[in-house]
Amino acid sequence: MSPLQNTVPDDESMLDTLTIGRRIRKLRLEQGMTVESLGAKISRAASQISVIENGKRELKLVELHKLARALGTTLDGLLQPEPLSRRDELEIALERVQRGPLYQSLHLPPLPIRKGLSDAAIETILRLHGELEQLHTQRAATPEEARRANTELRAEQRQRDNYYENLERIAADLLSAIGHSGGPLSQRATAELSAHLGFTLHYVADLPVTTRSITDHRHHRIYLPVRQTGTDPRSALLQAIAAYVLGQPEPQDYGDLLRQRVETNYLAGALLVPEMSAVDFLSRAKNARELSVEDLRDHFAVGYETAAHRFTNLATRHLDIPVHFLKVHSSGVISKAYQNDDVQFPADPLGSVEGQRVCRWWSARQVFDVEDRLSPYQQFTDKPVGTYWCTSSIQSAPNGDFSVSVGTQFAHVKWFRGRDTRRRLTSRCPDPTCCREPSRDSSTYWNGQAWPSARLNSSLLAAMPDGSTSGIDKVDVYEFLDRHASTHSTRD
Predict the structure, then answer these.
(1) How far apart are CA 435 and CA 423, in angstroms?
(2) Which residues form the HTH cro/C1-type domain (predicted)?
(3) Could you give all domains of the chain from N- to C-terminal order, each with its CATH number?
(4) Which tens digit of pLDDT belongs to each residue from 145-172?
(5) CA dist., res. 352 & res. 100, Å (int)
(6) What tens digit of pLDDT does each residue of 263-314 get?
(7) CA distance readout (Å), 128 to 113, 114, 120, 124, 172
(8) Residue of 266, 270, 273 whose CA lies nearest to 300
(9) Distance separating alpha carbons of residues 117 and 448, to the nearest angstrom
(10) How many CB atoms are located within 10 Å of the residue 442 CB?
């Protein structure tokens, strides 16, 4: 097996910053140009050209056009998918490996890629990395499979800026069908939407505990719980409607289950907060430099988490603002995460973010120390990759308190209300001395004198129920449907 097989994407036409940067360097050298002369042609400093050639910055289309002209080629010529030299491929693969979560988890110093580093040495490093990656994969149990699926889906979401155009179009068509012209979606309109699709609603007290709703396609009924404490009463119904509209089959694995849930939740959110109305509202707020998740929540009468999710769907595509999103348990453990603003979440060697503990100096954890839980909490945080601004809010759920945070890079905070906050902290994570290790004095004093009893999450010890990907008890579901279909004398 070639050492490149575990490091180079299967789709060779999918160019990344490393490949583009290497091609720019190759064309520059062929032209006999220095970084200074190329920088002068596009009005950039030589240091910025070096950053570009080293693949450490994503380029906008306008910049690519300028570089292509300066290098005497076309945009297609600059982005051509043909492979580079064998040496270039090896160097790109090694750089990609060093930027990956597995290599970084080893806490090894960066390995400079110089001419003196032979091809054989690079191939050896890549082979060892591939074997180590395979070993982690082989040892992975069911929870790790779920985390890998999460990692893959999060990468896809980042690539599309967490915006699903087809789902936005479906939501717009559904809302148009019931004459909803914009603004908040009322409970009455939600019921009209189910009637438009041919379903009647039935609120019952004996819904199986493993379900949020049950859709009976045979009799065109949607069953919902009588009591929906702590949740938006529209949410479960819209998710059931979304699953029906999308025609989702029973998931075959956790990856299928996760993708279906993301698409279902996205469509439900797009119905609650319609794109056209939301973009108009957010655009006006941006122009006034008053962007606020709280205002989006209040305007569309949704929960804070729904508003935060919806903001990430629309912020980059329509407002040109990269963002990140975090849902963090009071223990500091990440429940959900998304980013396209290059913030660095804590990750395990396989790149999984969910289940990792976020830095205690981030807004997502600092908000738990604030007594006032009604007012928005904002904070600047100086991180190894730059300064970020976040707004956070605490949401209570049956399984505990969670902070929901939306943040962006310092350059984009000018559009947000709360940018004048004086809270500013510093995070050195993933450096373990930042907040993961006790002080030397505390360690000396308490070493061998403290023995805490851990609270284990039972889900860490159990796989999915046998024969079920979703964890739903089909016996309960089918018995439930039989009971509630009793108005029909025989099964159809």
Answers:
(1) 18
(2) 24-78
(3) 17-139 (1.10.260.40), 153-272 (1.10.10.2910), 273-446 (3.30.450.20)
(4) 677 788 888 888 999 999 999 999 999 9
(5) 11
(6) 999 999 999 999 999 999 999 999 999 999 999 999 999 999 999 999 999 9
(7) 17, 20, 12, 6, 50
(8) 273
(9) 46
(10) 11
